[in-house]
Specification:
Blueprint lengths: L1 H35 L11 H20 L3 H21 L7 H6 L12 H8 L8 H10 L10 E10 L10 H4 L6 E7 L8 E7 L13 E13 L2 E13 L9
Antiparallel strand pairs: 1-2, 1-4, 2-3, 4-5
Helix pairs in contact: 1-2, 1-3
């Protein structure tokens, strides 16, 4: 019985120690995400402060539990919680969402972005070469006559993905308006976190400049809007004059 009791005590000791290490690891991981800038791959910028507060509260709870010698009472519960969270972090490492996610979500290339007049007014005054992907999508959704931007210069950066994913339904915009080999230069718009990320994109005309690039490559494209007609409808598509590979930005989302 004495040996059994010693074994049980030893197991409790290692369980408590392991749960403490995992809990400290979770605090450290949250702080590392903030310090390295990788937190932007998970949540919108507005939630960065909240993440730091959570890490601080979690650290305070650990400190109080250790000082009051209460950790053994909660160690089993936190062993499971911290273990699961860290396991998810290991299995789903911090990296930008890709074309796979874009094609598996509602590919409306930004139709849900409905800007107000207050949002649009500053964009109308800017040099078109300074407008981002999300700015152009907002303008396209707001302007009744977006084709007035034909021949305007464009300079945007983002990742490349196909304008007609394999799961596109026949007759959909992605299927009937643009060529199946056309690429979009896109970003994800994040409201809260990566879970609610919505893909947006601008159509890029087929070009020899794109032959050495593939889906998910990050590029900067310079060119002009070109007017095209398909099925009796008029659209604008970027006619690139240069395509340059770029590193994945620190914050890849809009």
């Amino acid at each position: 019985m004495a040996i059994k009791q010693k074994f049980q005590n030893l197991m409790k000791y290692f369980r408590n120690l392991l749960s403490l290490i995992l809990a400290l690891g979770l605090v450290g991981y949250l702080l590392w995400l903030s310090a390295s800038g990788r937190l932007a791959l998970y949540v919108a910028a507005g939630y960065f402060t909240f993440n730091l507060i959570v890490a601080a509260v979690w650290a305070f709870v650990l400190f109080v539990a250790l000082v009051e010698k209460a950790w053994p009472k909660v160690a089993k519960k936190y062993l499971v919680i911290c273990g699961l969270v860290l396991l998810v972090c290991v299995l789903a490492p911090a990296k930008p969402l890709s074309s796979v996610t874009a094609n598996n979500r509602n590919l409306n290339i930004g139709a849900n972005l409905n800007p107000s007049t207050e949002e649009i007014s500053p964009l109308l005054e800017r040099d078109t070469k300074t407008l981002r992907v999300v700015d152009w999508v907002k303008l396209r959704n707001y302007e009744a006559n977006f084709t007035k931007y034909a021949d305007k210069e464009v300079q945007v950066s983002g990742f490349l993905f196909n304008s007609r994913p394999a799961n596109a339904e026949q007759g959909s915009t992605a299927d009937s308006v643009y060529d199946s080999e056309d690429l979009l230069i896109g970003r994800f718009v994040v409201t809260c976190c990566a879970v609610d990320a919505t893909p947006i994109g601008l159509e890029v005309k087929q070009s020899e400049l794109l032959k050495n690039f593939k889906q998910d490559d990050w590029v900067q494209i310079k060119g002009k809007w070109e007017q095209v007609e398909t099925n009796g409808e008029t659209f604008l598509i970027i006619n690139p004059s240069s395509v340059e590979a770029i590193p994945v930005p620190r914050n890849p989302y809009e």
